Amino acid sequence: MIIYECEDYRAMSRRAANIISAQVILKPTSVLGLATGSSPISTYGLLADWVARKDLSFAQVKTINLDEYKGLSPEHDQSYRYFMNKNFFNRIDIDMKNTHVPSGLATDLEAECRSYDALIEGLGGIDLQLLGLGRNGHIGFNEPADTFTLGTHVVDLTESTIEANKRFFASEDDVPRQAITMGVKHIMQAHRIVVIASGLSKADAVAAAFGGCLDPHVPASILQVHPNCILCADKEALSKLPDRSAVITV
Question: Are 4 and 196 in contact (CB under 8 A)?
Fold first, then answer.
């Protein structure tokens, strides 16, 4: 595993954007696994700027998003489809039919989960997966549990996740209690994984995920056994990491 210690959020975002852009340049037909939340916003902004300057193109890229809230339409301003369109897809030269987000409005959620798994496998898997890191160690919406869930599934969101996400909604009562999320299987089968983390609020999660034992109660800890995982984090997020032998300061 490679751990990059970056000066701040902006530097972390640039490091992650550089890795993603290199992937797309080397393989223009890449399948990218994408994340939402506040962590990747600047990364997406940098990539969009490079597309605008004609330094980069996503014209042949296909994307697979990690998750979506149950019950939110693509037009809802807190849905992850809306987030991706606003912060990334509408700003780059990607073909929208090649962008994929689970449907939060599916009438048969189990069928939607099976269909999403089949979609990923039909695309040949994921070349590069971008991940944020939840404060409780979740990746996607794979929450702490007794076992790792392999396939795409419907998950009950934990109180800590609801608490962390309520700032995006009018009130805590408006935060959905369930979501559809890609499971650990397809995340771990990605050829390369890039995790981004910024700020003191993520320091405990980083320490538990990358400085502790493999534990499904810290879902991100499974990334320790991935053969090509890169953590891009700022100094604050890495401040509690117990072992710094793998850290590269950039």
Answer: no
Considering only CA atoms, which of 45, 40, 41, 29 is closest in space to residue 94? 29
What does the domain layout of the chain look like in residue ranges?
8-183
Query: Which pLDDT value is given to residue 245?
Result: 87
pTM: 0.95
**CB-hemisphere CA count at 13 Å for 121?**
10
| Residue 160: per-residue pLDDT | 84
Specify the length of the chain in residues: 250
From the list 68, 112, 117, 143, the catalytic residue is 143
pLDDT tens track for 215-247: 999 999 999 999 999 999 999 999 999 999 889
Give the strand pairing for 153-156 and 178-181.
antiparallel
> Which of the residues 67, 68, 112, 234 is marked catalytic?
67
Is there a contact between 241 and 247 (Cβ–Cβ < 8 Å)? yes
Residue 15 main-chain phi, psi, to 5 deg: -60, -45
Q: Is 5 a catalytic residue?
A: no
Share of the chain above pLDDT 90, in %: 90
pLDDT at 167 over 90: no
Model confidence over 179-207: pLDDT tens digits?
A: 999 999 999 999 999 999 999 999 999 99
> Does the annotation mark 204 as catalytic?
no
Active-site residue flag, 191: no
For domain 8-183, give the CATH number.
3.40.50.1360
Residue 121: active-site member: no
Contact present, 174 and 140 (Cβ < 8 Å): no
User: Angle 41-52/80-87 helices, nearest 10 degrees?
Assistant: 40
State the catalytic residue, choosing from 100, 138, 153, 186: 138
